[in-house]
Amino acid sequence: MTVQHEALAQYLKVALGGVVQVQAFRPLTGDESTFAMQEPGVLRGSDLKAFGYGQPIQIDLLLNGIPRSYVLSTMRRGPGFGHDHMADRAGSLIWAHAAYGKLARHVGSLDVGFFTDEGQLQSAGRAKEYFLLVEKVDGAVYRVDLERIRTEGKATASDFDRARALSGYLAKIHAEKGQDVQLYFRRIRDLIGHGEGIMGILDGYPAGYLPLPSQQQYLIESGCMAWRHYLKEKAERLSIVHGDFHPWNILFREGTDFTLLDRSRGEWGEPADDIAALSINYLFFSLLRSGQMEGPFRELFDLFYGEYLERTHDLELNSVIPPFYVFRALVIASPRWYPDLPEQVRVKLFRFAKAMLQVEQFDHKDLNRYLM
């Protein structure tokens, strides 16, 4: 979809309710830091995550003479991942507009709208495609910290402070519980069967993919069914969640000041989802660095996970988190989402995912046992 300057200015005048002078708009590329690798040429470009949503556009303007910046984002069209139809994408963006402002520290949404056949942007009416207008916030994504730690082989006091802050944040939002049993059932069902869940991710793997052939994919999906019925007995755990709490969705500024991006998959869910989403990245970056869980990433994992347990006294967490680790491992091992991973890292992530299906109680103090 091509955005015309005149159409954009006309829309913003209505959406922002003032005198608007658009000064510039351009693709939002984020930070340009390079992902340093020990093996030259394994990763190319500035980011591991090669497959994502639509390209966001940064808009710089004067609103009643005051400089402001905004971000206009869309969702990538299908196939797959539950984004196949316009209604799928519209539903996600409409939900995002309603939910973003309800979560502490999350970037706010100012409007949700759509593109018409004529290329106009409107906030209501004959929809052709939806977009999301959100606040522009400063900061660097948390994965930049993890890249630095991987390169330098050590974590600073600030790194531990940030891990502690993220753990404390999740403990705080997860303290708000819900009473909707069917909603908890849906969240567990979506974990497995949604287009962005385990089955949807596996459907995105290439046909005949040798590192994880169809028979092993079948066993993973079959194993998830037992977890689904086990978790259906845990509906009292329904809590406020972020839903996609990984390092690409966390922007840090000075110290422990951070803002979240891209809240996903519902306001309510299983707290283990947020814990798994972030903590598996300490394992991931440690595998990239040395092939096992050790050193600074082990220390950060222990701090993040341990502080959460200490704050929440969640005695069930280790017994419910395994299928969420399965999901996250399959995402970061995906040849479509992360096409340039070293093969030995991908293999260990598959081992980790398959091991999670077999355990009754996750041992957060010994992750290396699940990589063998």
From TrEMBL:
<dbReference type="Pfam" id="PF01636">
    <property type="entry name" value="APH"/>
</dbReference>
<dbReference type="InterPro" id="IPR002575">
    <property type="entry name" value="Aminoglycoside_PTrfase"/>
</dbReference>
<dbReference type="InterPro" id="IPR011009">
    <property type="entry name" value="Kinase-like_dom_sf"/>
</dbReference>
<dbReference type="GO" id="GO:0016740">
    <property type="term" value="F:transferase activity"/>
</dbReference>
<keyword id="KW-0808">Transferase</keyword>
<feature type="domain" description="Aminoglycoside phosphotransferase">
    <location>
        <begin position="123"/>
        <end position="282"/>
    </location>
</feature>
<protein>
    <submittedName>
        <fullName>Aminoglycoside phosphotransferase</fullName>
    </submittedName>
</protein>
